[in-house]
Amino acid sequence: MTRHERRPSRPTQADIARLAGVSQPTVSLVLGGNKAGVALSDETRQRVLDAAESLGYVPDPIARRLSRRTNNLLGLYTFTATFPTDVQHSYYPFLVGVEEEAAAQGYDLLLFTSSGAYEGATDVLNRVRLADGCLFLGRHVPEKAMGRFLDDGYPLVYIGRHDELGERLPYVGADYVSASADVVRRLAELGHRHLAYVREKDDAPASADREAGLRSAVADTGVRADVVRTDGGDVDTARLRSWLADGVTAIVAEETDTDIAVTAVESAARAGGLRCPDDFSLALLGDRVGRSPGLPALSGFAIPRREMGRAAVRMLTGLIAGEPEARIRQILGCHPLAGETVGAPPRPPEH
Amino acid sequence: MTRHERRPSRPTQADIARLAGVSQPTVSLVLGGNKAGVALSDETRQRVLDAAESLGYVPDPIARRLSRRTNNLLGLYTFTATFPTDVQHSYYPFLVGVEEEAAAQGYDLLLFTSSGAYEGATDVLNRVRLADGCLFLGRHVPEKAMGRFLDDGYPLVYIGRHDELGERLPYVGADYVSASADVVRRLAELGHRHLAYVREKDDAPASADREAGLRSAVADTGVRADVVRTDGGDVDTARLRSWLADGVTAIVAEETDTDIAVTAVESAARAGGLRCPDDFSLALLGDRVGRSPGLPALSGFAIPRREMGRAAVRMLTGLIAGEPEARIRQILGCHPLAGETVGAPPRPPEH
DNA sequence: GGTTCCCGCTAATCCGTATTAGTAAGGGGA
DNA sequence: TCCCCTTACTAATACGGATTAGCGGGAACC
């Protein structure tokens, strides 16, 4: 008795059927456009339409989707908050692209976040199954959960290159390798012979790609590059000065969603009264989203985040549609950013 | 036969039942917490739980919604893109608050947008019924659709004050009236006697409130205020100069999501080489989200967007829970922003 | 006059989960 | 031994709509 007391609810097809003196399926056929081509007299059709009109019928999207077994929802899973407090956050341009393309394809977006959830909470990850497919945005891949999704044939796409699951994980990435190599080459052309590369301690494909590009250009150009891993705390003014004393003329910093590396270098420089590119050149392997008012434009490369978001949605909807030969991995190119923080070395290199 | 070939779908309770050797309702009881208190042996319960775990079961929100009418989903409907291309967009801080509070209350967020949809497509709005309740963010209220939601008892909350549907529409707004009056009073105290108020042509409660506050302060202080409605194109340097020639010493601009009014004034000033507050004072009835690097901090007031987002979620979850005496309308206070664009009038007023 | 065909519609069923009524099995008491 | 009461489930059904098989009746054809 309990649940049925909720009587004054919206009119259903059954109500229309009763009023028009037909059956519910007939109503469904009339209102649903009758794609199956079932024969229906115009008179019946009209009675149904009139009844629907007079009752103010609105189809229930939930019921409709239950029988369609698809809900026109794309999941978007971010391992940190989707709307970070810091507006400058580098996720934002991805979201712009994702939303644009999702809207264009008629999908709505379902936001999930594991921020605040227990580590490795598999229920949280499993919740994404309620979408028809899901995009993932994050530096790392929870291999067990993702492996299971793949095994089950659940459509998913990572934003960012990831090889944690071999060739199985679909992604849309950016070509950090070439772009990073280009940054080093530009420095070499300006005369820099000794670099420090500051990166996060943490390992991820995004880091590996940048370092690979850097190393290949280092090998090509014959410059020297010292790799420094930091968690931010251990790069201070003293350390910065000691590098410069050692002959380092340019610092290359990894870009990540937290920007730990470049932030540490910038603070150390500011604290020590050092300026770029007068005292040393500073290049970022990436870009800074929504550059902050006070800070100079960093030299580096632009990541096509918006286009990556769009491409990821296209790949995902392709997977959902079960396209036979869907391209599962895609790498988009970056383009160089001149910026204001790179110049010739303070002292011309000896030769 | 056709529709059932689509086999590799998500596991259902029926699959679990088969694996555990029980019936589907038993699975539902075990997984649903068995609130009815049906007797179940621990052994059976465990078998079901194990089976569910091993299949990676996730309840289908649509089916659940159809029968239980709740699925832990909050809708967020924006009448423009949710992630605007312009990162500075004023919606963003609302979203931060909404996401925070939704996460805190254990709800996932379902993003809907009518951007790109035909005008007045009511089906588009009906999609939101998939969620347990929905937040709406926009300058206007599609009265017919919202009236229908209210009639049906569908829980919804507007972010922003709206009286289009009388007392029926729940909202969380900001006190633009007092805040706008304060801005005018501060100008009056500085000696300004003649203002121009630049606002959008478009009418909305957010505009009406600001204008009401302005008018009340104008009446109190005896200053003169000319109201100018613009769509942006018709405010140029010549017009600006003619105002100043008429004795206007301060311009007050409405803030909206597009910021048409203030942008027009600023461009006109820049083009004419006019500076604030030296040539005239410029106050905004609101604030500028993520102030742009080049532009000075505008004088105005801060809208507690993040807290509004949180409050709206709290109100909505209250409505969903069917709280008997839920407060349906809430107004949060704004606080003044000194900024750099308001000062004493260029020439002391005659007396 | 019987068979075939077509028209116009409905019965039956499905989607996945929740809920309630009811039943089979086992134990205890008289 | 019969009855009743638990215990532990399952059958039946609802939710609202989509889909498909099938049925009754009349017209056309042989």
Automatic annotation (TrEMBL), chains A, B:
> Which Pfam families has this protein been placed in?
LacI, Peripla_BP_3
Ranges where the HTH lacI-type domain occurs: 11-68
What are the protein's UniProt keywords?
DNA-binding, Repressor, Transcription, Transcription regulation
- Asked whether the keyword DNA-binding is assigned, the reply is yes
The UniProt entry, under InterPro entries, shows: HTH_LacI, LacI/GalR-like_sensor, Lambda_DNA-bd_dom_sf, Peripla_BP_I
TM region positions: none
One MF term from GO for this chain?
DNA-binding transcription factor activity
CDD domains linked: HTH_LacI, PBP1_LacI_sugar_binding-like
Gene3D superfamilies referenced in this protein's UniProt entry, alphabetically: 3.40.50.2300, lambda repressor-like DNA-binding domains
PROSITE patterns, per the entry: HTH_LACI_2
- Please give the PANTHER family that the UniProt record associates with this protein: HTH-TYPE TRANSCRIPTIONAL REPRESSOR PURR-RELATED, LACI-RELATED TRANSCRIPTIONAL REPRESSOR
Q: What is this protein called?
A: LacI family transcriptional regulator
**What is the originating organism of this protein?**
Actinocatenispora rupis
